[in-house]
Amino acid sequence: MTIYDFTLTDGKGNEIPLSKFKGQVMLIVNTATGCGFTPHYKPIEKMYTDFHDKGFEVIDIPCNQFMGQTPGTDDEIHEFCTLKYGTTFPQMKKSDVNGPNELPLYTYLKSKIGFEGFGFGVKAAAMAMLLKKIDKDYKNNPDIKWNFTKFVIDRAGNVVARFEPTAKMEDVRSCVEKLL
């Protein structure tokens, strides 16, 4: 199985086969509209506008699994993102990224690169403290830990990087640039 075997549904109900993006670098990200990391939309959109013509695609998958930080319908989420952050990249249907109803795509992504930690700094320490309260064993499973976890896929369809939401957006951008 490869990344290109998966099909997602966009916020309008259209099926989007990932094979449509074969040969492109992809950033797959679970997003939220009411999270401390929501401002990540701005640098993600900047990458999209800077690199889309060079073969870069963003796959935005809103998710409400983390403290209900993505309320609203798919239309309301899309309106928020376009009005507040000017997003132009494709937005999928709000979906689960963990648990019994998780998208099969996320089962695949997590099997390729598991959780490796939040890194260092104040945000990383805060995330670790929060996660310990929610899941004492969070370090030992590959689950998505929070909104704005990012997976980078190279032009050959390989999952090459996983960035937790605490990662610097400059590091995400650098990874994408190297693959273009």
TrEMBL record:
Residues making up the signal peptide according to the UniProt record: none
Keyword Transmembrane helix: no
Catalytic residues in the record: 35
Pfam families for the chain: GSHPx
Record-level GO BP terms: cellular response to oxidative stress
Family matches, as InterPro entries: Glutathione_peroxidase, GPX_AS, Thioredoxin-like_sf
An MF annotation (GO) of this entry: peroxidase activity
Keyword Metal-binding included in the entry's annotation: no
Keywords associated with the record: Oxidoreductase, Peroxidase
PROSITE patterns on file: GLUTATHIONE_PEROXID_1, GLUTATHIONE_PEROXID_3
Record family assignment: Belongs to the glutathione peroxidase family.
Protein name: Glutathione peroxidase
